[in-house]
Structures are given as structure tokens and as C-alpha cells.
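User: Design a sequence. Structure:
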């Protein structure tokens, strides 16, 4: 197979038919599908096994998190020596029939591509963008480019990174990972792991692309949205370790100062509105992130020798909001 779709499922049986049918309609025919079920309790794995015989199902006993589950699927796909591309698609996302064909054709014309995405639109309102890429802004905040903007056509261009809800990675990039088969950082578990791999690609001289010509559609937070405060906690937990691991020292100092400043502003604002759930999640997340810094400092030292991007190029990508 030239391209493998990796789908991580966690209690999303009700979304599987819609997601998988969009893959089955792809005009690029040389594809395979791997579903990694993250210990679902709603019968998702049994449903896939009975209805989708063509799907390679990996059923985990419990929830391993988004990063580890994707890594398991990616490793399985890359066992096939003819695999050139890995497509990641959330269970709450679908893609146009020519989506994979458009991205593969673009990648083949652009050597040293790490990842690619098309415009991802709101599943329920196709005039609204869900994502046109991801970045880390100068204040150290991971950002979803274009989120909730009215969609406007743009030319294809380089971005800091792509949104893992619907994207393609090249096997060439994945096979050159500094951290071997830990493609998505397993210590991040869930949230910002796509920003981490984006930073790794960008810092080491690979290109990530926003490509026009097709669309993906995303509902958003179909699994994690069922647990209020969880996404806030995990995002704040992983933010500082992400910065420590990847950014050059001069950018890291500025980003950490920005993160502290925006934390204070956010907590004051939430305190005035007496919105205590996110306050608790933010504080808990930041405290947990401090415990993770020594581990991510070791990863920083391991990665630093592969950081090749010049400061001008990095500045342009980080400011492309």
C-alpha cells in the first residue's frame, strides 16, 4: 500500500461509519486502513471487526492516549516497505474523496516534506475554518491557525505544522526520527503532541505544508470533550515541556516569559468571572509540567544537534498567525 490511514478510536462507535466511508471513497486507491482502538467500552472494536473486514484492527486493552496509539498504528504501517505516506484522521473527521490524492501529488513534487494538510472546515458549517495549520506564537502559546475564521481561499504555502485531526506525514520523515519510533512524544499522552512533532520537523529542516485543492471536515473534541477541564489540563501540562524540548534558547526565554505573563492574565480574568474549573485545570497542569522539565531537558539535549533552521525562517513561521 502506498498510503495508510491511521484512526485512533475511543468510545466513538457512533462516528465510525461516517469516518470510514469517507476513506473508502478516496480516489487514491492504493491505500490501507489501520484502526487502533484505545480500549473502548462502547463496542467499537467489535463493530469494526464484524463490519469492516478490510480494516486492520489493533484493539488495545485500555486507553493508551492519542500519542501512543498513533505510534502503534504508524509502526504497523511502516512495517510495509512500500508505505510512503501515513494519513491521520480523527474519528470525528471526514475527508473529500480526492483529499489523499491531492496531498500525495503535492508531496511528490516537494521533496523534504514532513507533513501536509488541506483546509479543515467545521463539520457542521463549511463556511467556517477549523484549521489551516498550527504554530507556536512568540508568547509560547500553541495556536490553531484560522480556527473559527470564515474560510477564504489561500495559495498553498509552508506552515509551522499541521493539525493531526486530518493530515498526512511522509514515511521519509517518520523514518528519520531522532527519537526512533516515538513519532508522537508518548510522555505528552494527548494534546500538543502534533505541535511537538511539527516543531521537530521545522527545527530540523523539514517542511510542513498547507495545501489547497480539497477539504477535510472536523467536529472537534468528540472524545475529550466529554470530560470538562481535561483538555485545558493537558494543554497546560504539555505546553512548557514542548517549549523546553524544541525551541532555541533565545526563543525559549521569550516564550517562557510570555507563557507566565499570559497565565497571570488568564487566571485573573477567570477569577473575576468565578470560573473555577479551568483555573484548577490550569494550575494543576502547570504544576505537573514543572515535574516534567528534567525529562524534557534530556530530550532537548538529544534533539539539539539536529536543529538546523535559521532564525529568520523560524521567525517567519512562528509569526504566520
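Assistant: Done.
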Amino acid at each position: 500500500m502506498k498510503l495508510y490511514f491511521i484512526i485512533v478510536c475511543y468510545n466513538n462507535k457512533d462516528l465510525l461509519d461516517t469516518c470510514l466511508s469517507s476513506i473508502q471513497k478516496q480516489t487514491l486507491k492504493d491505500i490501507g486502513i489501520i484502526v487502533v482502538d484505545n480500549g473502548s467500552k462502547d463496542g467499537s472494536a467489535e463493530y469494526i471487526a464484524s463490519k469492516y473486514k478490510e480494516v486492520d484492527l489493533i484493539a488495545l486493552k485500555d486507553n493508551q492516549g492519542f500519542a501512543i496509539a498513533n505510534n502503534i498504528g504508524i509502526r504497523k504501517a511502516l512495517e510495509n516497505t512500500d508505505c510512503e505516506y501515513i494519513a491521520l484522521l480523527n474519528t470525528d473527521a471526514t475527508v473529500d474523496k480526492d483529499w489523499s490524492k491531492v496531498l500525495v501529488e503535492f508531496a511528490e513534487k516537494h521533496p523534504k516534506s514532513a507533513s501536509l494538510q488541506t483546509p479543515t472546515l467545521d463539520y457542521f458549517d463549511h463556511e467556517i475554518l477549523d484549521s489551516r495549520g498550527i504554530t507556536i506564537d512568540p508568547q509560547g502559546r500553541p495556536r490553531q491557525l484560522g480556527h473559527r475564521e470564515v474560510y477564504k481561499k489561500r495559495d498553498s504555502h509552508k506552515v509551522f505544522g499541521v493539525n493531526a485531526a486530518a493530515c498526512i506525514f511522509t514515511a521519509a520523515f517518520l523514518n528519520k526520527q531522532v527519537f526512533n519510533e516515538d513519532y508522537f512524544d508518548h510522555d505528552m499522552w494527548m494534546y500538543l503532541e502534533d505541535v511537538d512533532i511539527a516543531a521537530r520537523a521545522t527545527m530540523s529542516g523539514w517542511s510542513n505544508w498547507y495545501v489547497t485543492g480539497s477539504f477535510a471536515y472536523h467536529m472537534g473534541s468528540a472524545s475529550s470533550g466529554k470530560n470538562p477541564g481535561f483538555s485545558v489540563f493537558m494543554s497546560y501540562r504539555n505546553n512548557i515541556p514542548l517549549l523546553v524540548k524544541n525551541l532555541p534558547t533565545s526563543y525559549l526565554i521569550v516564550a517562557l516569559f510570555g507563557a507566565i505573563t499570559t497565565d497571570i492574565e488568564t487566571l485573573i480574568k477567570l477569577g473575576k468571572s468565578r470560573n473555577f474549573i479551568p483555573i484548577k485545570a490550569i494550575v494543576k497542569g502547570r504544576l505537573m509540567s514543572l515535574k516534567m522539565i528534567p525529562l524534557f531537558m534530556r530530550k532537548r539535549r538529544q534533539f539539539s544537534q539536529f536543529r538546523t533552521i535559521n532564525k529568520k525562517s523560524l521567525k517567519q513561521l512562528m509569526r504566520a498567525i
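The mean pLDDT is 94. Residues 230-308 form one domain.
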